[in-house]
Amino acid sequence: MSRDCDEALANLYLYLDSELDQVSIHKVKTHLEECRGCDAPFDFEKRLRQVVRERLNEDLPEAFVMRLRAVLALEITGP
C-alpha cells in the first residue's frame, strides 16, 4: 500500500461525511477512482452507511432528544 493509499484511507470517513476541504475531496476522489486497492474498502464503507441510514430511520422519543440536548449543552458550556 502506498503513501497515497494510506492518506486516502485515513481520510475515508471525513470524505464520506463531506468534512474535507475541496482540495482534499478532489485528492481522495481521484485516488479512489484510480486505485483498485482502495476502492473495495471505500465501497464497503459507503454501502454500510447506506444500510445503517435506511435501517435506523425511526423517530426518537422526545424525552430522549431533550436529555441528549441537555447533555450536549453541558459539554459545550461546561458545568
Mean pLDDT: 85
Give a quick account of the main beta sheet: strands, pairing sense, barrel closure.
none
3D shape: elongated
Tally of separate domains: 1
Give the termini distance in whole angstroms. 46 Å
Question: What keyword list fits this structure?
Answer:
79 residues; mainly alpha; 5 helices; 78% helix
Please explain how this structure is put together.
This protein is mainly α and 79 residues long. The chain has one domain (3-77). It contains five helices and no strands. The radius of gyration is 18 Å and the shape is elongated.
What's this entry about, in short?
Helices cover 78% and strands 0% of the residues.
SSE blueprint and pairings:
Elements (H helix, E strand, L loop, with lengths): L2 H8 L1 H5 L5 H13 L1 H20 L6 H16 L2
